[in-house]
Amino acid sequence: MPHDFMPGLAGVPAAKSAVSDVDGERGVLEYRGIRIEDLCAQSSFLETAYLLLLGRLPSKPELTQFVIDITRHRRIKYRIVDLIKCLPEQGHPMDALQASVAALGMFYPGRNVTDQTNNYWSAVRLIAKLPTIVAAYARLRRGDEQIPPRDDLNFCENFLYMLSDTVPATILADTLDTCLVLHAEHTMNASTFTGLVTASTLADPYTVVASSIGTLKGPLHGGANEEVVAMLKEIGSPARVRPYLEEKLQRKQKIMGFGHRVYKVKDPRATILQQICERLFKKCGASPLYEVALEVERVSAELLGTKKIYPNVDFYSGIVYDRMGLDPDFFTPIFAMARVAGWLAHWFEQLRENKLFRPDQIYEGAHNRPYVPIEKR
Ligand code: CMC
Fold first, then answer.
1. Domain coordinates of the chain in residue numbers?
2. Which of 64, 209, 211, 326 has the highest local Cβ count within 10 Å?
3. How far is the CA of 259 from the centre of ligand 1 (A)?
4. Residues with Cβ < 8 Å from 356, sequence gap 6 or more?
5. Active site annotation includes 260
């Protein structure tokens, strides 16, 4: 056996990358060398997406052109809308998103992934169209008509407008924009790794992103944000936090929104999300879930602190989205709308020096067993 077996590939580098970096001991996250705190305070989602994809901050004309490119590609074909109409209304929006993104690839074949111009336009299309698909499923599943994008609205205003048929207040669009910056990228997480494996076969970008969406859905990854809000609602009040957590831990169950493979301190994104919560509550009124969440964090520090398990990005994000009036099962699709920028940045990197992912295994099964005909079994 040439290498040690590392369950979950913990600590095993799967790629060389210049997209982002995490210092899990100090709680530092950088995109292309820029601290996440600075990006959240000063950048926008589309500027951050440009930074991730192209490796540097855009000049003013470059950003203007990128925003125009994205805005021009927001519409989805009526056949994609028809496809979404056919999906069951009680299904999960992540499944609807995955199916629709996979179907997009049939409309924009782009099989030649060695063509960088083609790849740029595929990336633009994916970033532009994900919100339109998410909003379309949200409306169509409750029997409302799909609302096409409006070119005079910015990325987040337009998404919230396509959901609700109302141009949102600036605070709501700005809050969402900061959340998208915060979720846009995070090194070699499970969904990014999935995308790289798919990309390494030279599959088209729609298939790459569809495979990443499938991985993001799981409750140990992006699906945790939805579960956190369900947990906070179930707890109901700060007084009930301690018995709830004690019972959960006694049963060896995990607290959703806590723990991370890389961070051994509080996830810096959780801290930023708390600031976002407080800013939002000042303008729009507080959320009762926040008081419960603060108590969960306090009691968990007592019960889990020695294991270095602290809130991660999914702990406070659901509270923000809940306060914005968004349905819980749309929290993870919103995560995907942001993370698609990171997935695509890693896709670009993978194609530059591609090698097919084909790891090894440690075979633990039998050898040389006889084949027994079915009538003799
Ligand atoms: N609650 C209680 N105990 C925990 C938790 C938690 N959330 N997370 C880890 N532990 C304990 C775990 O029980 C184990 O204890 P012991 O050594 O006594 O058996 C120890 O910590 C190591 O856990 P692990 O699951 O082997 O560690 P990991 O590095 O594989 O876990 C994780 C990372 C994110 C899967 C895990 O912390 C977890 O399941 N968290 C809850 C789900 C969650 O919030 N996911 C979002 C992750 S961050 C953002 C994203 O990817 O979307």
1. 44-169+184-219+340-352
2. 209
3. 5
4. 200, 201
5. yes
Q: In whole angstroms, how far apart are CA 227 and each of 291, 298, 315, 330?
A: 17, 19, 9, 12
Q: Does domain 44-169+184-219+340-352 have CATH number 2.40.40.10?
A: no
C-alpha 325, offset from chain centre: 19
Distances (CA, A) of 339 to 99, 140, 359: 17, 24, 25
Does residue 314 carry a catalytic annotation? yes
Cβ atoms < 10 Å from Cβ of 237: 10
Tell me the C-alpha distance between 208 and 211, whole Å: 5
Q: Per DSSP, what are the bridge partners of residue 20?
A: 31
CA-nearest residue for atom 2, ligand 1, is: 254
d(Cα 318, Cα 324) in Å, to the nearest integer? 10
Q: Tell me the average pLDDT of the chain.
A: 96
Has residue 277 got a pLDDT over 70?
Answer: yes
Helix, strand, or coil here: 292? helix
- In this structure, the residue with its CA closest to atom 8 of ligand 1 is 259
- Which two structure tokens, joined as six digits, stand for 4? 């040690």
Query: SS3 of 28, please?
Result: strand
Q: How far apart are CA 118 and CA 124, in angstroms?
A: 10
Residue to mutate, 229, 245, 252, 307, ligand 1, most ligand atoms under 8 Å from C-beta: 307
Contact 338, 306 (CB under 8 A): no
Nearest to 115 by CA among 18, 210, 209, 202: 202
Which residue in the list 73, 314, 322, 346 is annotated as catalytic?
314
> What is residue 26's three-state secondary structure?
coil
Q: Among 147, 142, 143, 145, which Cα is nearest to 160's?
A: 147
Atom of ligand 1 nearest to the CA of 249: 2
What per-residue confidence (pLDDT) applies to 280?
97
Q: Is 344 exposed, middle or buried (0-12, 13-18, 19+ CB in 10 A)?
A: buried
Protein residues with CB under 6 Å of any ligand 1 atom: 8, 189, 220-222, 224, 254-261, 304, 307, 309, 312-314
Per-residue model confidence as pLDDT tens digits over 98-146:
999 999 999 997 678 999 999 999 999 999 999 999 999 999 999 999 9
Residue nearest atom 44 of ligand 1, based on CA coordinates: 257
Consecutive H or E run containing 31: strand 28-31
What's the CA-to-centroid distance between 260 and ligand 1, angstroms? 6
